[in-house]
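Hey L., structure's done. Input below.
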Amino acid sequence: MYTLTIESSFSSAHALRGYQGPCENLHGHTWKVEVRLAGDKLNHLGLLVDFREVKASLNAVIGQFDHQNLNDLPQFKEINPSCENIARIIFEQLKPEIPLLDSVTVWESPSTSATYKP
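Output:
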């Protein structure tokens, strides 16, 4: 089994509605996003997938979040823009384009992250 990891990032603000503490206030992060792909067969070039194609798909998805207040986006009208929810939404949007997608991890700081893997 082969596992590929591709990373990118975006900057945005959010506030956790109903949270009792400082994160209830609007604040920003430079979010790091890590996608993992898994598969057991390489193509004729010896690649599982082309990193460039995965990075382009990832950047297209996270581009909708970049320099936004996440709370104002339709995806987060009913749910909090938590690290966990961001990871799931990115996964769900990428999976149709990247069938070998295994998981998405979103880092909101160097020491805290959430991973979504169905």
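The helical segments are 51-62, 83-94. The first strand starts at residue 2 and ends at 14.

-- N.
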